[in-house]
Amino acid sequence: MEEERGRTVLQKRLEKYLDQGYGECHLRIPEVAKMVQDSLLKFDGIRYQLFSWVVMPNHFHTLMKRLRDSS
């Protein structure tokens, strides 16, 4: 229980740091962000069902479900 709470606190700190835009922020470059988006869309409906995604300046988030027949 204590270990899980510690992980939650650490995850929240990390997300706060990332959302402030620190780091190299290569995804701020439109061509690079498009490569990430295109990569996510490539296997949508084949390996996974992609529900939502967002490309941030220094990271991205996805909400997806792996398809049953995909390894």
Short description:
This protein is 44% helix and 21% strand.
State the total count of DSSP E strands.
Answer: 2
Rg calculated over all Cα atoms: 15 Å
**Class per helix and strand makeup:** alpha+beta
Give the spatial strand order of the biggest sheet: 1-2
Give the H and E element order.
HHEE
- Major sheet summary line: 2 strands, antiparallel
Can you tell me the overall shape? flat
Which range best describes the helical content: under 10%, 10-25%, 25-40%, 40-55%, 55-70% or over 70%?
Answer: 40-55%
Which segments are poorly predicted (pLDDT under 50) over 5 or more consecutive residues? none
Q: What integer is the average pLDDT?
A: 90
Proportion of residues in β-strands = 15-25%
> What is the terminal separation in angstroms?
32 Å
Number of helices: 2
Structure description:
The protein has 71 residues and is an alpha+beta fold. The protein has helices spanning 2-19, 30-42; strands at 48-55, 60-66. A hairpin with a 4-residue loop joins strand 1 and strand 2. The longest helix is centred in the N-terminal third of the chain and has 18 residues, at 2-19. The chain starts with a helix and ends in a 5-residue tail after the last strand.
